[in-house]
Prior knowledge:
The complex is a heterodimer.
Chain A: E1 5-7, E2 18-19, E3 31-36, H1 42-55, E4 59-64, H2 74-83, E5 86-92, H3 95-110, E6 115-120, H4 124-134, E7 136-137, E8 140-143, H5 152-170
Parallel strand pairs in A: 2-7, 3-4, 3-5, 5-6, 6-8
Helix pairs in contact in A: 1-5, 3-4
Chain B: E1 2-4, E2 22-26, H1 31-35, H2 37-45, E3 50-54, E4 67-68, H3 73-77, E5 82-83, E6 85-89, E7 95-99, E8 101-102, H4 103-109, E9 122-123, E10 126-127, H5 135-143, E11 152-154, H6 161-167, H7 181-188, E12 198-202, E13 207-210, H8 211-221, H9 228-239, H10 245-250, E14 256-262, H11 265-268, H12 283-298, E15 321-323, H13 334-337, E16 346-359, H14 366-377, E17 391-395, H15 397-405, H16 410-420, E18 422-424, E19 447-449, E20 456-460, E21 468-474, E22 487-490
Parallel strand pairs in B: 2-3, 3-4, 14-15, 17-20
Antiparallel strand pairs in B: 1-7, 2-6, 5-10, 6-7, 8-9, 12-13, 14-16, 16-21, 16-22, 17-21, 18-19
Helix pairs in contact in B: 5-7, 7-8, 8-12, 9-12, 14-16
Amino acid sequence: MTSLILRDPTAETATVSRARKTPPASLEGKIVALMDIGKMRGDEFIDRLEGLFAEKGIATRRYKKPTNTRTAPVELIQQIVQEVDVVVIALSDCGSCTSCSTHDLNDLDQLGIPGVSILTEVFQSAFQQQCEKIGFAGASLYTPHPMQNKTTAELHQFAEGVFEELLGTISAN
Amino acid sequence: MATDSIALHRSNFLIMQQNQECLLFLKKDCETCVLIEPVIRALIARGRKLAVYVEDDPDFYQDLSPLDGTSLQPSFQWKIEATPTLITCDEKGRSERVVGWDKKAWQTVFQDKNLGEGLPEFRPGCGSKSREPGVYEHLVATFSESGLEARKVELGSWDDEMEACYERGWTDGLPVTPPTDARILRMLQGTTRDPKAIIGKVPPNLMPITVEKAAINAVMAGCKPAYFPVVLAALEAALDPVFTMHGLLCTTCFSGPIIIVNGPIAKAIGMNWGMNALGQGNRANATIGRALQLIIRNVGGGIPGDLDRSTFGAPGKYTFCFAEDETDPSWEPLSVARGYQKGDNTVTLFQGDGVQGFIDQRSSTPEQITKSLASSLFAVWHPKLAEFTNALLVLSPEHYAIYREAGWDRQRITSALHRAMVRPGVELIQGAQGVGEGIDPARANEMVNKFWPEGLLIVRAGGEAGLYSAICAGWTGGRFRYESIPVTKKIEL
């Protein structure tokens, strides 16, 4: 018998991951981008994050994607890159949110803005899969799932629950 | 006599090494080859040196010591298109050839004015076996460089090629046609596009896809080469940013791309728009939709459970493709409604779910059937949600007949349906009717449309009998009115 040769139908991608950009040693004097992915109720979660940063005296600036179902427009990515030092992307609680926001995190990182993506815990494996497929060792934090049926107060508690860890992820100290 | 500049292949050919004057390609199953047998016999008897290859039956011309050409390697390497073909070579390896029986040309080659006396002046030949359907690409794959660039995956001698495709994670759960070079080359015959051309980046991993990679997946899906232009157009539509294939693939919702084909190509490639049009059983319908899904899976990395996060999925995510019934001249096809000319071949991709059946066997006027359809369309995703998604309505021949007989066309049906789907916001707001789900409470005092004005796509299809129609809910990404919309593309043949 002779062996059969087939052709690979896949993208033939390597899986070696690129490390994320090193975050600044301290957030003093830095500006943190709070990037709303455009999913319902993410703004309530981000409202609380904004307040927590303000209490620490850390400057923030808000951005919002037109839709969670696509990657961020190039113009938005370029604007963020020009205006801030680190980025926090929130809040992914669905499949399309996760994939698209992971690309955004990667795109910003490649342009020199280290960051972290906040997702609901169910999408931990999706985030890891997407990172693996695009060869990027991205940073992520997780809040409870589901979040769409929670009260605003509960969403604020989620933000408080993740905040200290968040600070440690976007600064080296 | 045609002159060509085919480089001389020295390996297996006797023409120079063994001091032959000419090569002759024949087959027994060719009347012209049989007709000229006395001529060949006479030439050999006179001591002319002819190497005779027989493509189909080595016993043919047995007493003339023919060479076995049944591997078709000589025919392939000499680019033989018909039998008989007579090739002469000069000392520099340049060749000239006579195709078919051309008495004057043969007489010139052999410098014999009496050659073929009594035979007709001209007889065309038959096609070479090397050019029969499906054969040529095997010969390219076996005897030459295929030019394909995708990574080779060599199976073990005893491997089952069907299982090998499963093991490598290349399938949607159903068997695929193993992508061999011959099959891929045959698929590429379906397009004039360069196999190396990049069509776009396939989500979710945003990996570039070439025409060749699309062909590999079309082979696996079971497509014929004639379907390939439709697959390429569907892929281009899917990769148009406003189609939001990225979100559609990764979503927790049910949806996937639904492909609707318009234009003469639907009939030309044997698509189904009639009985069971949305179901199984038609090769073109089944495999075109599946090819797109396999591309998303294999090239884009859209694997269920990884980045395809659909809570339930839907059967349409294997494949969902059908043609519109354009046989009734009173009906304006979807492609025309979307700005294309009647007769253009197009694909329209809709982000949609499975089929919600609609039955009405009692309504007999357009007003009745409109109200009836509207009542079912309210149910898309949730009766209390509005401007939340688009919808696809597949109108059956019997339901359309009610409209047609009253003189209603597409525009009138569409606008009447929209008018029938306007409701007071106060009934729909969150909490109203004791149901948490609903629209923004701020809209309580508005009259609210169920769909955006452009958000209801109507297609005519289905079997002659049955007072049913089909509703496919759109994806919830459609709530971003201008960010996620159906896309129509022309099919380039």
